[in-house]
Amino acid sequence: MAESLNGACLCGACTFTATPVSDEAGVCHCSMCRKFSGGMFIVIDCSGTLEFAADAPVTRFQSSPWGERAFCARCGSSLAWLSRDGKMAFVSAQAFPDPGRFPVKHQLFIDCKPGSYSLAGDTSTMTEAEFMAQYAAAPEGSA
């Protein structure tokens, strides 16, 4: 997928353009993503292409040594998880006009998912330990 898309927060103050890496969505069930989004955080990989409008009231919160959360300072909409090195950007699927165009195909931190919900359909899954093993073992600058 190489189509640039526009997106926005709930109040419309934070607008952006981004080009999704693929037509698939992923879900993170970690406790930080659940608190940030109010549930599972459904994201689209837009690494290297996310650009907020110059006047967008975007606030960034450093949530870990390697990542930060971007949200609208006016309405509070959760917009993206960003790596601190600037290489990765996972944008909320709900910030795009048609989030249904992105079928959920991946689930991270599946062992942290509360028992109160589940997703239909086939997805690949990764536990917290598997995720940390894969990305903690990655060479510097690759994750």
Mean pLDDT: 93
Low-confidence stretches: none
Strand order of the largest sheet: 6-7-8-9-4-3-10-11
Instruction: Give the C-level CATH assignment.
Output: Mainly Beta
Range of helix content: 10-25%
Helix and strand element order: EEEHEEEEEEEEH
Query: How many H/I helices?
Result: 2
Terminal Cα span: 22 Å
Query: What is the number of strand segments?
Result: 11
**What structural class results from the helix and strand content?**
mainly beta
Can you summarize the main beta sheet? 8 strands, mixed
Radius of gyration using CA atoms only: 15 Å
Report the sheet-strand fraction.
Answer: 25-35%
Return the domain count.
1
Shape by Cα distribution:
globular
Folded structure, characterized:
With 143 residues, the protein is mostly beta strands. The protein has one domain: Metal Binding Protein, Guanine Nucleotide Exchange Factor, Chain A. 11% of the residues lie in helices and 34% in strands. It has 2 helices and 11 strands. The strands form 2 sheets. The chain has an 8-stranded mixed beta sheet with strand order 6-7-8-9-4-3-10-11. The protein has a 3-stranded antiparallel beta sheet with strand order 1-2-5, with no helix packed on it. The radius of gyration is 15 Å and the shape is globular. The model has no long low-confidence stretch (mean pLDDT 93).
